[in-house]
Amino acid sequence: MSAFSFSDHRFGYGPRASASAALTDQFKRYDPRPALIAALAPRSAVAAELAEYRAQTREMRAEIKGGADAAQGKEQQQAARKMVARAGRDHYATAVEARFATAVASEAPFVERLVHFWANHFAVSADKLGVTGFAGLLEMEAVRSHVLGRFEDMLVAVEQHPAMLLYLDQAQSIGPDSPIGARIASRGLRKVGLNENLAREILELHTLGVRTGGARTGYSQTDVTEFARALTGWTVAGLAAGPTARARGDVGNPGDFAFAPPVHQPGNRTIMGKNYAQPGLAQGRAILSDLARHPSTARHIATKLARHFEGDEPSAALISRLEGTFLKSEGNLKAVYTVLAEAPEIQAAKQVKFKTPWDWLVSSHRALDLGAGTNGRLVQVFTQLGQPIWRPGSPAGYDDVAASWAGPDALFRRAEVAEQITRRVAANADPRALAERVLAGRLTPATAQAIARAESPMQGAALMLVSPEFLRR
Amino acid sequence: MLNRRSLIQLGSLGLSAGLIPGLAFARAATDKRLIFIIQRGAADGLGTIIPTGDTQLMAQRGTLAVDGGTKLNGFFTLHPSMVETAKLYSAGEAAFIHAVASPYRDRSHFDAQNVLESGGTLPYSIKTGWMNRLVSLLPEGGKGAIALSPTIPMALRGPANAASYAPSALPDASPDFIARISQMYSGDPQLHGLWDQALVTRSMAGDAGNARDAAALGTLAAKVMAGPNGARIAMMETTGWDTHSGQKARLANQLKNMDALIAALKTGLAADWANTLVIVATEFGRTVAANGTGGTDHGTASAAMLLGGAVKGGQVIADWPGLGTPALYEGRDLKPTLGLDQLIANSAAAHFGIDPAQANRVLFPEMVAGKRIEGLVRG
Fold it and tell me: Which residue in A449, A432, A443 sits closest to A468, CA to CA?
């Protein structure tokens, strides 16, 4: 019982009233597209709202140039911006609720945890206007469908997702010597060109990593720029911004990935000593394919997975087995997760991970069988707990070590939230039995005593949620 | 064993700072205050302390030019958003340092922030933060460090005692529940320490604990630092500086917020402002030339600010490298001519009366000592 419960906490999101399936059996139980997620607004709808806002902005500018009242125009423009921002926030909040409800109810919490791991690995941040409405879709579309597949497929799906292309400014990057780049330069209209953001973060965060094993992974600033040149033309249909939008020839369904040949930087590219002579879209795609199989990528991913499951300072042995399996299987993620599920290092470890706010709130709702209802304040609750979902504020995502989460104030907030959510615990519930079940095998006398002496079942349940045993996994 | 009633009493006492031994911010033997404000995301120093006297400026980044601003001297202009900071400059309470950079020479935000905060020369080579090590150099000062953020940032991590605090919009926990948690954590060293710090900080913040905007955050920071029991060392974080696109409007807004924060610190610290040194710095600068999307990309050198009554203000320190392309670092970035680690070590040493060699050794143990940057702090 206690070993079983242990793996529920470490690999999943803690027990529910009914027991979870064995870890590798959860691969079969996982549903990539449960009803709540399938019901989210599609990317075409999000894109249409943004496109309309941009069209309005362009129109307004033209009217002002043509002599219309500038102050009035600006006012209308601000109103339009507010509207599109609100629509984005609505999509975002609905997606956060769907994510939370799915995790709370899941019969495959190990796989759900892995989905959230990858969404954080490929982080976008919803605080950018164009990204807010798309942020949840990156996880729902690109990550959920590939979480049990190949790393390369997930990588490509993520880098071609509108949320990523917009977040890291790729959608507006223009090859200086592309037909459009050259034309604009010759007219001297305004400076347009390359944006290195996506290329840099793919190398540094998504694949090779900057500091794998303490050593540099062998790419230079020149490689970043070359990769950025190769990626020019990767954009989002229906959302190309700026004076070149029309000339790019917007193709495809709004919100879908599109390749725009007129802005692609022509020529061969050299990255880390390898020559890429492919034309157009195939060039960036070939580079991604090589990056997905690179030994530094295997090391980077292995280290992050080990840190997430074994502890903040993972062992070299586990990292090396994960790395070996990743390389040998060419990024077969199920094979890599199986190494995790069978790792003796993890089974032997004590409670070593301090839960993130997400971990903690999901496992709290599972433990108390509260369902996912939070009175529609879920987004704010995560903000108050210090981990707004899909909004880490940087492409590096959230940290995965205790030092980032175990702060005095952060701890206090969990107590505040615990007291709020346990108001919904039934007055005739027995928190002692609850603690025995949820914390089976690890409940300490101090916690058991605190819970037994609570003044009400609600307070007993709240104490369990902030107990040392429940704050860690 | 404590009975329930005495537990509740202990809990309510815990809410009042200074009554539980070892928990309060001990009255340090120094009255000096140091606030480090990090600009996460690589703030554009060239757009903040603008080298309007450099003939290459318009050619390199004319599209980003702004009107107005405050002439600092014959060469530099302060961005027009920083109205209150300009007043500090003319009152001799603000100094700027330009073309300054940490030892880090790549362009990753995360690694660069780690170098700036840990005080190493390579990312992740040092596991504690320079502010935490500074605390260890202060007489009895080890109990008064705080980060105005929900968790403790790298610069304040380490063995010395540090707290963190950020305003919460959640309903308050009940005193009885708080007291029971205190008891439950008594056998868990990590949670016990965190919990006690949370209680002390909350009682100090009092009704300023609802800060929402930059000015309110400055007021809150001042509140936990002012007076004899105030924290001596604080760190504040600002974000949103990564202006790859739409820089003109975004930077103007960022600087407006920073300006409001600084003004609120001065107002809130009142008499203690005279003893205060505020250091504002970022992990690296941005490219000299504008990019194709109305912004700038990751660069190298940037600008730093020293603010406060303890500053010998009214000066801009720079060994100006020039903006012409041949003068740029790797042909694209402002070349660093002064060290940010040197600036911090020298200023902190002068401010707290620490031996400069010791400050160098403890705060930045891997530093290759460069040009000393002195005469900026009254000491």
Answer: A443
Using CB atoms, pick whichever of A403, A417, A455 lies closest to residue B176.
Answer: A455
Q: What is the DSSP string of A398-464?
A: ---SHHHH--HHHHHHHHHHHHHHGGGS-TT--HHHHHHHHTTTT--HHHHHHHHT-SSHHHHHHHH
Residue A214: which of A296, A323, A312 has the closest Cα? A296
Which residue does chain A place closest to B41, by CA atoms? A394
Q: What is the per-residue pLDDT for B143?
A: 52
Of A190, A386, A404, the CB nearest to B63: A190
- Give me the interface pTM, i.e. the ipTM: 0.86
- Mean pLDDT value across chain A: 89
Residue A362 to residues A21, A112, A113, A359, A435, Cα–Cα distance (Å): 18, 11, 11, 5, 16
In angstroms, the CA B37 to CA B308 distance is 13
Nearest to B244 among A192, A195, A413 (CB): A195
Residues of chain B positioned with their CB less than 8 A from the CB of A416: 168, 170-173
**Taking CB atoms and an 8 Å cutoff, what residues of chain B touch A458?**
none
> Which has more confidence, B348 or A347?
B348
Mind listing the pLDDT tens digit for each residue in B22-67? 223 334 468 899 999 999 889 999 999 999 999 999 999 989 999 9
Highest-pLDDT range among A149-158, A168-177, A372-381: A149-158
CB pairs < 8 Å spanning A and B: 157
Q: What is the residue-averaged pLDDT of chain B?
A: 86
Give the single-character DSSP code of B232. Answer: S
**Contact B105/A at CB under 8 A:** no
Contact B168 A192 (CB under 8 A): no
Confidence class of residue B149 from pLDDT cuts 50, 70 and 90? Answer: confident
A-contacting residues of B 47-86, CB under 8 Å?
63
Report how far residue B161's alpha carbon sits from residue B139's, in angstroms, rounded to the nearest whole number: 14
Residues in chain B: 379
Distance CA A194, CA A229 (A): 7
Q: CB–CB of B298/B286 below 8 Å?
A: yes
Residue A409 to residue B188, Cβ atoms within 8 A: no
Average pLDDT over residues B278-301: 94
Q: What is the pLDDT of residues A140-164, one digit of tens each?
A: 999 999 999 999 999 999 999 999 9
Which residues of chain A neighbour B291 with C-beta distances below 8 Å? 191, 193-195
**Dihedral of alpha carbons A200, A201, A202, A205, sign:** positive
A249 confidence band (pLDDT: 50, 70, 90): low
Cα angle for residues A160, A161, A162 (degrees, 5° grid): 115
**pLDDT tens digit string along A272-300?**
999 999 999 999 999 999 999 999 999 99
CA B269 – CA B274 distance, rounded (Å) = 9
Quick one: A69 exposed, middle or buried, by C-beta within 10 A (0-12, 13-18, 19+)? exposed
CB contact, 8 Å: B187 with chain A? Answer: yes
Contact B104, B284 (CB under 8 A): yes
Residues of B in contact with A384 (CB under 8 A): 168-170
| A211 with B123: Cβ contact below 8 A | yes
Q: Please indicate if any CB of chain A lies within 8 Å of the CB of B213.
A: no
Question: A355 in helix, strand or coil?
Answer: coil
Give dist(CA A384, CA A362) in Å, integer.
Answer: 15
- Token readout for B369 is 């000592």
Tens of pLDDT along A198-240?
Answer: 999 999 999 999 754 444 567 888 999 999 999 999 999 988 6
| Backbone torsion region of residue A313, taken as left when φ is above 0, otherwise alpha when ψ lies between -120 and 50, otherwise beta | beta
pLDDT range class, residue A17, cuts 50, 70, 90:
low
